[in-house]
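ok new one. same drill as before - structure tokens go in, u give me an amino acid for every spot. 187 of them this time. try not to just spam alanines like last time pls lmao
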């Protein structure tokens, strides 16, 4: 048993002592005999490399403070635009007074957010029924990186939609539907 451990230790010891570099371009370290003992010291395998000069620091680096930054008074610090808006479903037919005729009745309405590239986001912001006058009021909170919204209203079997930028989503907005109203109908 002892000879087995001795053999393993001897094998490990001989494998640990190596035969040097196989790189043919390297030059062997010079060995100079020590004058006092008469023996040759081992070669220096890892000589200290000469450090390369680094970048020279600026004599007076600029100060990094915000004293010189001026923020305009009208700057909006909020990360979103929030507005209460009235959305009306209207006919694309003009009334005699030049206004679009409202489409009364309860209609299914879906509001979808549009990202900065005007692509629809996956989940709608709101799904609801309009009042019997074809209107709804809602409070919308739109992040600044969004383009705006798309409102879809289903009137009967027809789906009417309109895209609004964030700047347009304020006060009262109208979603026109290409439905003709008989004379005297509407609001």
């Amino acid at each position: 048993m002892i000879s087995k451990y001795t053999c393993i230790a001897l094998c490990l010891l001989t494998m640990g002592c190596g035969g040097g570099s196989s790189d043919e371009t390297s030059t062997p370290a010079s060995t100079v005999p020590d004058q006092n003992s008469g023996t040759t010291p081992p070669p220096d395998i890892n000589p200290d490399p000469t450090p390369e000069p680094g970048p020279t620091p600026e004599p007076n680096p600029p100060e990094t403070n915000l004293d010189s930054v001026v923020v305009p008074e009208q700057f909006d610090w909020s990360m979103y635009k929030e507005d209460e808006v009235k959305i009306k479903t209207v006919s694309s037919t003009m009334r005699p007074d030049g206004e679009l005729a409202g489409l009364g009745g309860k209609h299914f309405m879906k509001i979808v957010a549009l990202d900065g590239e005007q692509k629809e986001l996956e989940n709608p912001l709101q799904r609801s029924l309009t009042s019997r006058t074809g209107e709804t009021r809602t409070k919308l909170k739109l992040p600044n990186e969004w383009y705006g919204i798309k409102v879809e209203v289903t009137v009967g079997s027809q789906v009417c939609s309109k895209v609004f930028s964030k700047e347009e989503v304020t006060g009262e907005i109208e979603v026109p539907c290409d439905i003709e109203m008989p004379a005297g109908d509407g609001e």
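The first strand starts at residue 80 and ends at 94. and btw The beta strands are 80-94, 100-102, 108-114, 126-129, 135-143, 148-155, 158-165, 171-177.
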